[in-house]
Design brief:
This protein is 73% helix and 0% strand. Helix 1 runs antiparallel to helix 2 and helix 2 packs parallel to helix 4. The longest helix is centred in the C-terminal third of the chain and has 31 residues. The chain is globular and about 50 Å long. The mean pLDDT is 87.
């Protein structure tokens, strides 16, 4: 059974909203860290979690999309993407649970983190969709014959 996948070009509003979600979520999270009265190593922990979370979320989205389009993705890499995303979210939850922050601050960091992850996934999806409407190759599934 040959599935034909039709990709529609994302609207400018969705592309803009995706970028706003990513940039606003990350900027607010980082601004909160900058102004926080926590030790530098604790700030580094939360910064690293944001970077790790963004990478793992975008990598998972790309892997899901690759599989959908018939581009090979090993099961091991796919599983590692899922594990990485879950670990990043769990590490944030454990860090916030044990932090000596007000509940409102904990919620602030959690929501900014999750907004950043959503924005990162949406931006990556849009970049990939828009590349198909320009003459930029995303990836080839079969080698081209020279001739």
């Amino acid at each position: 059974m040959n599935k034909q996948i039709q990709i529609q070009q994302p609207t400018a509003a969705f592309v803009g909203a995706s970028w706003v979600a990513l940039l606003l979520g990350a900027a607010v999270y980082l601004l909160g860290l900058w102004n926080a009265g926590m030790a530098l190593n604790e700030k580094g922990y939360y910064f690293t979690l944001l970077m790790y979370g963004l990478f793992s979320a975008v990598s998972l989205q790309k892997s899901v999309r690759d599989r959908l389009e018939g581009i090979p993705v090993t099961g091991m890499y796919f599983a590692l993407c899922w594990v990485s995303l879950v670990v990043a979210v769990l590490l944030l939850a454990v860090g916030l649970w044990n932090a000596t922050l007000a509940s409102s601050e904990k919620g602030f960091y959690a929501m900014a983190f999750l907004l950043s992850l959503f924005g990162g996934v949406a931006v990556q999806k849009n970049v990939r969709d828009l590349a198909q409407f320009k003459d930029e190759p995303v990836a080839e599934t079969e080698p081209r014959a020279e001739g």
